[in-house]
Amino acid sequence: MGIEMQGYRLDKTMEQHEEAEGWVDEIHGTHPMDDLLRTDRLPHIWCPGCGLGTALTCFLSALRKSKFDLDKVVVVSGIGCTGRVAGYVRLDSFHTTHGRAIPFATGLKLGNPALKVVVFSGDGDLVTIGGNHFIHAARRNMDITVICVNNFNYGMTGGQAGATTPVGGVTSTSPYGNYEYPFNVSALAAASGAVYVARWTVLHARRLERSIHEALLKPGFSLVEIISPCPTGFGRRHKQREGLDTLHYYHEHGVIKHGADPRETDIGLSGALVEGKFVDLDKPTFLEQRSRRLAQALEK
Amino acid sequence: MKYWREPLDLKDIRVPHGVIHILKERCKGCGWCIEYCPRDVLAPSDEINTKGYHPPHVVQADACVSCGLCELLCPEFAIYVEETEGEVVLYER
Ligand SMILES: Cc1ncc(C[n+]2csc(CCOP(=O)(O)OP(=O)(O)O)c2C)c(N)n1
Ligand code: SF4
Ligand code: SF4
Ligand code: SF4
Ligand SMILES: [Mg+2]
Fold first, then answer.
1. What CATH topology corresponds to B16-87?
2. Does ipTM come in above 0.95?
3. Residue bearing the CA closest to ligand 1, atom 4
4. Pick from B28, B32, B72: which is nearest to A58 by CB?
């Protein structure tokens, strides 16, 4: 093979090019985020116009701002396109089985309470197959931060309908439109007891970054729901062939309502897409509750 | 830039300026940075990278206000801004 393109040959690695032609900043240069990424794995597998890269950038940027000791930060993902995050962060990370990121994270936190445990996974993984773990971790106020990327479908396996697919949503398993009622991820977390709940689209990247920062600093179960384009699985079946079309949709339909009642933030295929910080309250965490109870029991 | 009322401290405000760096080989041509740059600094280019995508290029270098939105929105870690001392030219919009 010897296809040439602008002087670059497809059968040569970047390193070979660098050796032959010297360092070119615009090609071999580094990005300020590179120290938090496993750059040997870049470019990532995500499609052009997928929002996952933006979601990851916002998380890493918020993590850096939070000034945590990075040796004490762990990222846990389940399975799916979003689940790949665990493999791209240059941090201690775990790629667990489908739907089981939260039980794994719970074990990590209980085994070593000094850790900052972050779950980064998809809607299908966290609230469809893993839905039970999600509500119970929130109920217990387990001290973990959950970042759930909601693209309304199972992206990785070919765009099937899941528990977050809006009514009417056309997917590979709902070709005539989905007729099941979906979960509202933020409302589910709030109703189950989460102490911090926020939702942003990837277009509102600055606000998203700020919310992740707040969630990371919040003791207890915090959830940030990220609405993100999946042109390959979902967008192209909804007149959003490219990621950019979906960003235009967010721009037109996004309505920021801090403190909104999460029950009134359902997401449909049209109409307002309510974003903002919905819940921010203080409540003793699982570990605090346990120590308190233990101390009381020992007193008797 | 047009103001409906000239701010009293207009002379003291220093608008930050940025220099854009594009890692062309990482770009997947989604166009997000181009679309959402508030200063229209970027535009699609005819260039093609090894993977067949068209990376953006800088068309109004001196208009960049170093807001960092392109850097945050880019899904590919392919563009970033470096804040510099330079003067911003605020074009009439
Ligand atoms: C136990 C089990 N069941 C099913 C699968 C197939 N599978 C892989 S990824 C996935 C869906 C992931 O969806 P989501 O969490 O929404 O991630 P996305 O790809 O949309 O980011 C499924 C069903 C699996 N890997 N393991
Ligand atoms: S299938 Fe969807 S979620 Fe997966 S990488 Fe492609 S656009 Fe992103
Ligand atoms: S830093 Fe802001 S102004 Fe400069 S190119 Fe990026 S988005 Fe445009
Ligand atoms: S946002 Fe990134 S990947 Fe998309 S066109 Fe701009 S530089 Fe390329
Ligand atoms: Mg999904």
1. Alpha-Beta Plaits (3.30.70)
2. no
3. A98
4. B72
